[in-house]
Amino acid sequence: MQVSAYLKLSVAVAVATIALKTGAWWLTDSVSLLSDAMESVVNLAGAMFALAMVTIAARPPDEDHPFGHHKAEYFSSGFEGVLIFVAALAIIWAASNRLLAPQPLEQLGIGLSLSVISSAMNGALAWAMLKKAREHRSMALEADARHLFTDVWTSAGVVLGLLGVAATGWLWLDPVIAIAVAANVAR
Fold first, then answer.
1. pLDDT digit string (tens) for 138-164?
2. CA-to-CA distance for 161 and 151, rounded, in angstroms?
3. To the nearest 10°, the Cα dihedral for 89, 92, 93, 97?
4. Quick one: pLDDT at residue 68?
5. What is the DSSP letter of 28?
6. Main-chain dihedrals φ then ψ at residue 121, nearest 5 degrees
């Protein structure tokens, strides 16, 4: 499979992941699951931009670019970094409001199941993308894969934290987890 095919698959998985994580947030009203869904929106934007840059990078050399267009992939990597930072700020904003006014969580079991399914999809895709990125020396594909791995770890932290909320009843833990997600994303 070509690099662009992996990025197209990344776009499709990002759309599915957004649907699953948004559903998880909608069912539970958990701000940490909302933050996880916001991170997936960033994954989608990053994958779409990476696909565009890989398409440009594949163009043959021309009069204006006698050595080719391969440096377009660097823009993809930088864009992904900016998106991650913006998502972290948005997550902190949403979580701060919930920290001031904690809310009870609903249907946590179903919501967590949806989150785990989306994480499994992201993890499998990220692993395959990273392998292909190394094979083709694609910076854009590697950046997208690493971003997906970050999403998997973030989702795992959210799931564990929400299990802690369910076990203790500490509603304030939900926005604290969301802020920790933002810090991890920004890192």
1. 877 888 788 888 889 888 988 998 999
2. 15
3. 180
4. 62
5. H
6. -65, -45
CA 138 to chain centre: 19
Q: What's the confidence (pLDDT) of residue 19?
A: 96
Q: Are 37 and 22 in contact (CB under 8 A)?
A: yes
Under 8 Å between Cβ of 41 and 87: yes
Name the least confident of 65-69, 91-95, 105-109: 65-69
Q: Largest alpha-carbon pair distance within the chain?
A: 65
Report the SS3 class of residue 62. Answer: coil
Whether 150 and 35 have beta carbons less than 8 Å apart is answered as no
Assign residue 68 a region: left if phi > 0, alpha if psi is -120 to 50, beta otherwise?
left
Whose tokens are 């916001």? That residue is: 38
Dump the DSSP string for 170-181: -TTHHHHHHHHH
In the Cβ-directed half-sphere of 126, how many Cα atoms lie within 13 Å? 19
Give the E-state strand segments of 86-142 in sequence order: none
